[in-house]
Amino acid sequence: MIKLSSVGSLFAILFTITTISCTQPKPKRVINFPETNLVEENLIPKPLEIISTNDGFALDKYTAIYTSKDVEGFEEVGNFLADKIKSKTGIEVPVNIDTITTIETVINIRKSDTLDQNLPEAYQLHIAQDTITLHSSTATGAFRGIQTLRQIIPEMSNDTLTKNKVWVIPTGKIIDSPQFEYRGAMLDVARHFFAVEDVKKYIDVLSYYKFNVLHLHLTDDQGWRIEIKSWPKLTEIGGSTEVGGKSGGFYTQEEYTDIVNYAAARHILIVPEIDMPGHTNAASVSYPFLNGNGKTPKLYKGTRVGFSTFDTKKDTVYAFIDDVIREVAAITPGPYFHIGGDESLVTKKKDYIYFVNKVEKIVQKYGKRMIGWDEVANADISSSSISQHWRGKKNTQVAVSKGMKIIMSPAEKAYLDMKYDSLSKYGLDWVGHIPTDTAYIWTPESYVPLKSIMGIEAPLWSETISDIDELEYLAFPRAIGYAEIGWTVQENRNWEDYKVRLANQGPFLERMNVKYYPSPLIDWKTKQGMQKIKK
Ligand code: ACM
Prior knowledge:
Elements: H1 4-22, E1 49-59, E2 63-67, H2 74-89, E3 105-111, E4 123-127, E5 131-136, H3 139-152, E6 167-176, E7 182-188, H4 196-208, E8 213-217, E9 219-220, E10 223-224, H5 233-236, H6 253-265, E11 269-276, H7 281-286, H8 315-330, E12 336-340, H9 349-365, E13 369-373, E14 386-389, H10 393-401, E15 405-408, H11 411-414, H12 436-440, E16 453-460, H13 468-475, H14 478-487, H15 495-503, H16 506-511, H17 527-534
Bound molecules: acetamide.
Acetamide binds at residues 342-343, 373, 390.
């Protein structure tokens, strides 16, 4: 029970905050801002609608952030923004403080149920001279909105307008919401293992560009990377090596949970993939009864595909799969569970269909929605399961005809592990080269009708990369383009316009210490270059 006196003080605080947010505080100082143009900011992904009012908002040591406090997640979004402002500018912006005597400008992050675009990730940003108001119906929408705000805080302060340093934010209005509900990246931690810290760094950059899913490909022929408490040899034996033969590694369930929570704080869902019935050599080496290819399984350090399969006829195999899915589902709060299902080249077709049908039921039993690579559409699966298009156009047509939703990852456009060109240091080329423009210039709806598309995902297979620098070389800049394809409607996407906005991501990528591939198609801007222009 809330006591009456505390209700009174709650009203007093709410009144103070509402007063700050609803009435324009009279600026105690007048700043003559240089003309700004919000429309020309280098935002990625490009928002739905931008209107410029050509004035400035002064972000400085007199700025404070206020958020809705009675709605879960909004205060955390405010704190996240304050933290990012501090690392970009050095300014400590207080969040939800009571004393307001020194405050000149306010960033309000508020729940609103009356937006034109009342979708879970929609937001509106109004930037006036002394108040920024960010409205969304959810904390997730507010989180997407603060990424936009982070992108328009200039790299450098203006030191000539007042006695203190001011970061001038252009004024105007942004109305925004994503085209697709699913905007994913996939990381293969099975061919080479990536440490928790590497995965977190990848998540940090993905969240800046409004991705909302990280799919972890946790198991393959070369390695099993997630602890299963009821089957410990999976990681003891199956996790012990990787491509090339170095000792691999795995996530304990606590480490996996740490990744899930870190992603959740950035409004990113983790989708776990246990690939089966093929790509299962590491599991079969650990527990040979699982094996269905008639050979004695041995640890594998190469990069061939398609030689392994579970034995699809044994009840004990399904009991094992039940344990694995139960344990992984229990530590995965998101609604999806990916069962792989690709390249099961040594599984008979009828056995493959029988297997996928049975595994789909196990996934559903543990309350998850199944995703599988496009081959799974050939089984008798439910229209609520999801097919991930990578190669098989016929498979994807079957999925569409069954009413399934599709995640678009066409290899020839969206595979981050393809080389950029013949000079690329890492990457494969079985589907050709994917330079930065090819990665950007395509539309998911040219493959299947828009209404069947749940979203897009950019897979990064790790046969040729073994550390975070190599990961970043293949992922960036192409992943930034996939972020825009997932978020921004086709009419608002244009390579010539995008490549200028991409060039201006240089200082952010530098600040994040991202070792991106400096594509020669892009006239990259650097922080040092910008400082020279200023002098
Ligand atoms: C895949 O690239 N095997 C899905």
